[in-house]
Design goal:
With about 230 residues, this protein is α/β, with parallel strands linked by helices. The protein has a single domain, classed as Acetylglutamate kinase-like (Carbamate kinase), CATH 3.40.1160. It contains eight helices and nine strands. It has helices at about 15, 25-40, 50-65, 70-90, 125-135, 170-175, 190-200, 210-220, and strands at about 5-10, 40-45, 115, 140-145, 150, 165, 165-170, 200-205, 225-230. Strands 3-2-1-4-8-9-7 form a seven-stranded mixed sheet, with helices on both faces. A two-stranded antiparallel sheet has the order 5-6. Helix 3 (about 50-65) packs antiparallel against helix 4 and helix 5 (about 125-135) runs parallel beside helix 7. It starts with 5 loop residues before the first strand and ends with a strand.
């Protein structure tokens, strides 16, 4: 797979499985991706762990104390793998037959779609997405989650939080924590953000449930979302 018409996309686990598996979203998302494949696009989709990972981590924390960050990370990674297998199965004949785990390995395939999962402890699947984009020499990433914009502060805590349409990596990294931990939630994680800034990448933060808005973004029309770049 070369990088011509290639889109690297991070698909948050929170929209794959908000509480239960959202098969309506999955069907709409599948139809959208296949329509784009028919137009000549290719995709690498990296799945997050989302609430599946958090449910397992919460359960473990209620059973034992002093859980290592490594063990919590590993649970999260395997949650991303489960979601990746789900996505690969949904796309069946369109997808490469194996899940991409190591983001530094370039897959040679004629298939128009590769599904990737988390890889190593220490960051979320956002970092894997950045590293995959670097491996495939793609400078733009689409990050699909359950939010529509980056805000200047946490809108769950501050009523006066304002949405941001465009922001630099330097300013974005000032409004998120410096460190990442298992179960951490932010539009784009701190470790991945540092790498994306270093590589000069642009990340679009979009609400993945709004497939029509994703269509607008790919068609260079007005869209709802935030662009982060240098």
């Amino acid at each position: 797979m070369n990088n011509e018409n290639l889109i690297v996309m991070s698909l948050g686990g929170s929209i794959i499985i908000p509480e239960e598996i959202d098969y309506i979203f999955l069907k709409n998302f599948r139809d959208f991706i296949i329509r784009k494949i028919d137009l000549g696009y290719k995709f690498i989709i990296v799945t997050g762990g989302g609430k599946t990972a958090r449910k397992y981590n919460n359960a473990v924390s209620k059973v034992i104390d002093n859980i290592s960050e490594y063990d919590l990370d590993m649970i999260g990674i395997y949650a991303t793998k489960l979601n990746a297998i789900l996505m690969k199965t949904i796309f069946s004949e369109y997808a490469y037959e194996k899940i991409l785990e190591n983001p530094n390995v370039k897959i040679e395939t004629e298939k128009p779609l590769i599904i990737a999962s988390g890889w190593e402890p220490g960051a979320s699947s956002d970092l894997d997405t950045v590293l995959i984009a670097k491996t495939y020499e793609v400078s733009n990433i689409i990050n699909l989650s359950n939010i529509s914009y980056v805000y200047d502060k946490d809108p769950r805590e501050y009523d006066d939080a304002k949405k941001v349409r465009n922001i630099t990596w330097e300013n974005y990294r000032k409004i998120i924590p410096e460190k990442w931990s298992a179960g951490f939630s932010s539009p784009f994680d701190p470790i991945a953000s540092k790498k994306a800034q270093e590589f000069g990448m642009k990340v679009a933060i979009l609400n993945g449930r709004n497939v029509e808005n994703l269509e607008k973004f790919l068609s260079d029309e007005d869209f709802e979302g935030t662009i982060i770049n240098n």
